[in-house]
Specification:
The chain is an alpha/beta fold. The protein has one domain: Alpha-Beta Barrel (TIM Barrel). The chain is 42% helix and 15% strand. The protein is built from eleven helices and eight strands. Helix 6 links the parallel strand 4 and strand 5. It binds 3-methyl-2-oxobutanoic acid. 3-methyl-2-oxobutanoic acid (KIV) binds next to strand 6. The site of 3-methyl-2-oxobutanoic acid has 11 residues, from strand 6.
Length: 257
């Protein structure tokens, strides 16, 4: 990939070149700079913000104002990477509300928006794309539905879920999505969707056979103070490194008073 600004079209074209798409989340200026300097082409200001930064139990409390605040911080890093942002819970219930909120995220600095769902949100997806805003789809386990679904469940295990995933993915592509996140989709179904779709699949907990992978960055770095999902496999014991560094610094000051 060249050193020019990454666009949604560039991310889409990576599929054709067989170039794996590495995507990570950021919610602030510093991390966005680090990810960009490490060559990550897609930075997502995910609504995982709610758990990672704001201390909510799930993503359903995240507001548009909170998303805008963190999108602005990431955008100030002026990354070469494409900056995507989640439309938070209940911010895309109608076409008008969806377009207005997608435009607010773009005004804050997002270059693409992500919405959870398939055929159920097609009019919103079409309208966002028609408004000139690149849309990243999100299928499989939908974190914003965690309360309705009573937990985070793997999708695609039974034929009805498999068929629904195929129909939703085809519909999102027809509506103009430039890529689709597949979260907790069974690896065989994720592999089938990856082979079937003309746009990239970006997996999270969906096996290796996607066109790219996305992680919540604190899961990669092992800095989450709480639960780290099974698929994340931290590459660093960041939690312990941070605590030990703080302890060492504190001890370097001398006896605690
Ligand atoms: O909110 C988020 O961070 C996400 C992903 C990790 C896909 O939606």
């Amino acid at each position: 990939m060249s050193l020019t600004k990454v666009t949604a079209a560039d991310i889409r074209a990576m599929k054709g070149r067989g170039e794996p798409i590495a995507a990570l989340t950021a919610y602030d200026f510093s991390l966005a700079r680090h990810l960009d300097e490490a060559g990550i082409p897609l930075i997502l200001v995910g609504d995982s913000l709610g758990m990672v930064v704001l201390g909510y139990p799930d993503t359903t409390s995240v507001t548009m104002a909170e998303m805008e605040h963190h999108v602005r911080a990431v955008a100030r890093a002026r990354p070469r990477a494409l900056v995507g942002a989640d439309l938070p819970y209940h911010s895309y219930q109608t076409v008008e509300i969806a377009v207005a909120n997608a435009q607010r995220l773009v005004a804050a600095g997002a270059e693409a928006v992500k919405a959870e769902g398939g055929r159920g949100i097609l009019p919103q997806v079409r309208a966002i794309v028609q408004a000139g805003i690149p849309l990243l789809g999100h299928l499989g386990m939908l974190p914003q539905s965690v309360r309705e679904e009573g937990g985070y469940h793997v999708k695609g295990k039974v034929e009805a879920e498999h068929a629904a995933l195929v129909a939703d993915a085809d519909a999102l592509v027809a509506a103009g999505a430039f890529a689709i996140v597949l979260e907790l989709v069974t690896p065989p179904v994720a592999k089938e969707l990856t082979a079937r779709l003309p746009v990239p699949t970006i997996g999270i907990g969906s096996g290796r056979d996607c066109d790219g992978q996305i992680l919540v960055t604190t899961d990669l770095l092992g800095t989450s103070p709480g639960f780290i999902p099974r698929h994340a496999k931290p590459r660093l014991n960041g939690r312990e490194l941070v605590r030990q560094t703080v302890r060492d610094w504190r001890q370097s000051l001398g006896k605690p008073v």
